[in-house]
């Protein structure tokens, strides 16, 4: 009986994840799950990397169960985000920051210094790679200062 409960919990979590994965895919994205450490990986590119898509996906992403690892029931529900598209703005990034993000790669997008400030306040964010975004030097410096133990890499079109 003691082994039935973990299997039941894992199966219920898997069904919920599978449903979320189908929803993300129906909007042009990809969602995967790392069984070892319980992190979700969200990949949105092109038209899928837009504020409208993110707004539609957020209820599903927020409702994902806590991670289930090979070692135990892991309580982490962190996200690794890979965003690649020109339609993402501060509004979409602000929504994503309501998730527990540990890593973010963003290429393109129309984010401003407002997003840099929002990323600064994301407690679990340990890696940030921003490519071809327009941020002021002061916003980049403030982001780096707010994350002294994180990897912060900015490439391309800073202002």
Structure, described:
- With 159 residues, the chain is of the alpha/beta class.
- It has a domain at 71-159.
- It is built from five helices and six strands.
- A six-stranded mixed beta sheet has the order 1-2-3-4-5-6.
- Strand 5, helix 5 and strand 6 form a beta-alpha-beta unit.
- Helix 2 runs parallel beside helix 3 (90-96), helix 3 (90-96) runs parallel beside helix 4 and helix 4 (113-120) runs parallel beside helix 5.
- The N and C termini lie far apart (61 Å).
- The relative contact order is 0.12.
Structural class determined from secondary elements: alpha/beta
Uncertain residue ranges: none
Query: Which descriptor suits the 3D outline?
Result: globular
Across the major sheet, the strand order is 1-2-3-4-5-6
Largest sheet: 6 strands, mixed
What does the radius of gyration come to?
A: 17 Å
Counted beta strands = 6
Count helical runs.
Answer: 5
Termini Cα gap: 61 Å
State the helicity in percent bands.
25-40%
Mean pLDDT: 87
Order of helices and strands, N to C? HEEHEHEHEHE
Strand content: 15-25%
């Amino acid at each position: 009986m003691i082994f039935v409960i973990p299997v039941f919990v894992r199966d219920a979590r898997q069904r919920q994840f599978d449903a979320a994965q189908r929803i993300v895919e129906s909007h042009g994205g990809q969602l995967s799950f790392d069984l070892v450490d319980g992190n979700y990986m969200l990949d949105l590119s092109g038209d899928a990397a837009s504020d409208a898509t993110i707004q539609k996906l957020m209820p599903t992403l927020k409702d994902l169960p806590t991670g289930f690892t090979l070692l135990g029931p892991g309580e982490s529900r962190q996200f690794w985000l890979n965003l690649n598209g020109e339609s993402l703005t501060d509004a979409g990034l602000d929504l994503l920051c309501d998730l527990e993000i540990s890593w973010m790669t963003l290429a393109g997008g129309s984010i401003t210094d407002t997003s840099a400030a929002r990323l600064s306040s994301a407690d679990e964010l340990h890696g940030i790679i921003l490519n071809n975004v327009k941020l002021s030097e002061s916003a980049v410096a403030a982001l780096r200062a707010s994350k002294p133990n994180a990897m912060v890499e900015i490439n391309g079109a800073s202002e």
